[in-house]
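Following up on my earlier thread - several people asked me to post the actual chain instead of describing it. Fair enough. Here it is, all 435 residues.
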Amino acid sequence: MIDNSVFNNKKVAFHTLGCKLNFAETSAIGKTLSEQGFTKAKAGEQADLCIINTCSVTDTADHKCRQAINRLNRQHPNAVMVVTGCYAQLKPDEISKIEGVDLVLGANEKFNVLDYLNKQDTTNKIHHSEIEAINDFQPSCSKDDRTRYFLKIQDGCDYFCTYCTIPMARGKSRNASIADTVAMAEKAISEGAMEIVLTGVNTGDFGKSTGENFFDLVKVLDALPSNTRFRISSIEPNLLTDEIIEFVGNSRNFMPHFHIPLQSGTNEVLQLMKRRYNRELFASKIAKIKAVMPHAFIGVDVIVGVKGETDELFEQAMEFITELDFSQLHVFSYSERAGTQMLRIEHSVSPAERKRRSEVLHLVSDKKTKAFYESQIGKKAQVLWESKVSGEFITGFTENYVKVQTAYDKQLVNSIQQVTLGTWNEDKTALCACS
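Reply from S.P.:
Thanks for posting it. Predicted structure:
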C-alpha cells in the first residue's frame, strides 16, 4: 500500500536504462513531476519517489533492470518505487514480484505517473494496457548535457523482425505532426541546444500516422534560422533514401553522420530475420554516402549468433562487413526473446560461439575506427565542446563525430570552435585539437 504522505518533501530519483529514446521519455516524465513541485534528489540524498525506466532488448538488459531496481531499493528504502519502460510492458508480473516495487506502469501509462500515485486503490501494483490498444504519441526531449538534446520524433514499429520484441513493447509506428515536432525543436533551441539528435524506434518511418514523411521533416528542420546542429539517429537502410543522403551532403545544419542497422552480412540470415532489405542494398547506401560525403562517419549495427547463423554464414557475413567502408560497428550478441518467431528456427549458436563472433567483429570495428580517425588528422573541423571534463581536459565532437580533446577552458563549454585535428591523445580515445 502506497502512503502518499512520503511526498511531503517531493524528492525524486530517476534511473534510465537502454536507448536514447528512453532518456528522452524519462526527461518528459521528469518535467511533469517538476511542474508539480518535485525536485531531483541529489547524490547521496534520500528520494521519496524513484522512477526506473527500463529496457528489454536482451536477457542482459532484463538482468540489468532487476539489478537497478534492487540497488535503488537499497539506496532509497523508504521511497515509492515505480518501474516502467519496455521490460515493464513485456513482463509486468515478473517485475511486480521484486521486493520494493510499488507500481508497474506499461507503455500507455508511464506518462501519467501522478495519476496512478494518487489513485485511492493502490493495492493493485500493475497498470498495463494491451499493446494493440496503444495509439497515443507522447513527444519528449532530453538533455544529454548542456550541448546535446535528444528529440523523440517517432515511437513504435510495424516491422516485426523475428528476433525482436520492440513491437510488443512499444506498439505500432506513430508520431506527432511535423509542425508539433518542429515546435519541440524550436523550444530546445531557445533553451540553448547546440545539437539535436532525432530519435525514435524506427526514425525513418516518421510521418506514417500523420500522412507526412521523414524527408519533409528534415527539410523543415534544416531551414530553421539557427546554427543548431542536427543528427539523425539509427535509420533503416530501406528508409534512408538517396534523396536524404544528397540533402544531408549539402545541408547547412544536418551533420555528415549516419547510424544504419545492418544486423547481418548475409542475405540468408537477413531473410531469417525478416529484414526489409538485402546486403546489396545496404552496400549501395554506404557507397552513396561516401560518394557524396567521403568524410562522413558511419556507424553500423550487427547481431551475431542468431538462430540459423551457421559457421559458414558467419564467415560470409564477416567478409562482407570487412569490405564495407564504415567507421564503427555496434555489435550485439543474439538473445532469445519469448514470443519471437526466431525461436522456431532449430539451428542454435552456443553462447561461447556467440561471444567469439562478437569479439571477432569488435576487432574489425576497432581497426575501422582507428583508420577513420587517422584519416582525419591534419584536417580542419568545427568542434562542439561539451561540459564533460576528464582530468585537465575537455572533449567535444566534430561535424562528422570525431571525438576531440583539448585543455579545459570553461569558456569553451557549449561553443563551437574551429580547430586543426592533431594526433591521438594519450589513451587513444580522441584526437588532440591543435590551435
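DSSP finds 13 helices and 18 strands in the chain. That should answer part of your original question.
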